[in-house]
Amino acid sequence: MRASLVLFCLLAASCQTRPAPETATTAPPARTVPDAPLRETRWVLRQLGTQAVSVPANTAEAFLTLRAEGQAEGNGSCNRFRGSFFSEKPGELRFSPLMSTRMACPALDTENGFTRVLAQSSRYRISGDTLRLFDAADAPLARLEAVYLH
User: Fold this and answer.
1) Count of structural domains within the chain
2) Where is the signal peptide (predicted)?
């Protein structure tokens, strides 16, 4: 009897259950945002070159809207602008000279920088809700973000 008890204890000790090995957990798939359309989207200026754009008090966010019929319109922060744009090849985006009102405002530097970037623009890329403008040498000019009105 004693021998059977010792044998039972040895067998029980050798059959100890081990915790199941941890498996690598996979992160849930990243939520992919479809690319916003270039046209008929309100693109708000977030960055000029490498500088983030801030909105001073009593001014509006600078934005750009490209209409289906080829018209570009927007606001540089204080002044509205309008002109034409051309996108004849995929990734191409050029602007005609823009007409603008000329009111003075605290965000005039941002406004002048924005219109200068639009004049230099020759290419674009959209990734999700982000529009990036580039010059002919593929140097980054600006980053804009799609804002959807509810």
Assistant:
1) 1
2) 1-19
Residue 48: give its domain's CATH number: 2.40.128.270
User: How far apart are alpha carbons 136 and 25 in whole angstroms?
Assistant: 45
Tokens of 74: 């927007």
Domain coverage including residue 125: 42-147
Distance of CA 111 to the CA centre of its chain: 20
CA distance 98 to 121: 13
Residue whose entry in the numeric block shows the structure tokens 């982000």:
130
Q: Are 92 and 86 in contact (CB under 8 A)?
A: yes
Has residue 33 got a pLDDT over 50? yes
Q: Is residue 110 part of a domain?
A: yes
Residues 6+ apart with CB under 8 A from 78: 59, 60, 103, 104, 105, 107, 108, 111
What are 53-104's pLDDT values in tens digits?
A: 998 888 889 999 999 999 999 999 889 999 999 998 999 999 999 999 988 8
pTM (predicted TM-score): 0.76
Tokens of 118: 């639009």
CB 146 within 8 A of CB 131: yes
What is the predicted pLDDT for the residue at 31? 62
Other CB atoms within 10 Å distance of the CB of residue 23: 6
